[in-house]
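Weekly structure sync, notes
Attendees: PL (lead), two postdocs, one rotation student
Agenda item 3: pending single-chain targets
PL asked that the sequence for the first pending target be pasted directly into the notes so everyone works from the same version. It is reproduced below exactly as submitted, 218 residues in total.
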Amino acid sequence: MRPRLSRSIQRVALLFVILASCTVTALELSPELLTFVQRQFGTEARARLEQWQNLHDMAATATTERQLSLVNSFFNRARFINDLKHWGQEDYWATPVELLATNGGDCEDFSIAKYLTLKSMGVPDEQLRITYVKALELNQAHMILAWYPTPDADPMILDNLIDEIKPASQRLDLEPVYSFNGEGLWLTQLGGSHKRIGDATKLEHWTRLNSRLVNTLK
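Predicted structure, written out during the meeting:
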């Protein structure tokens, strides 16, 4: 089981925050965080965070399609590890720093890290949906990130199961259940209709994650 970042380190971890009513600003990792991660997790862990910072700086002015490709490939290099083995509990939603420091996470962690990174690069929140699906071939719950270039578009799917970004219409192995972002919570069909059912604050794990990110600014 991997240790989580301590509360004191969370406060210096990131200089961006994502809330239902907030926007993401530029990503900037503090020297204190990098020093702590190197001491706690090793030089390779620090290098992963520095690569994340470099990716953000390099791709901030790229086209959205290029940003999607770079971010998807970057986070898909991390290992898939289930929460019980990795964090010692059934369902833990990690911050991107926790994912990269430990070089592992599950589908929720991958999707959240991609979402927050793309938002920090300037991709509008309304174009991004973290989407809970059923992976039919695996017969299990799964989470992906969907990008909608227009509200009614066939979204492009960023998935840790495959590196290629495909339109939802080509991902017949995924059955959508619901989706959310910083603005709301929807019952959704990938490439189909959406029914808003409230705010993402209804999701307890999402609220806890946001709370930990807020603490980075205190």
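Discussion points:
- The longest strand covers residues 128-135.
- The chain is about 40% helix and 20% strand.
Action: rotation student to compare against the earlier draft before next sync.
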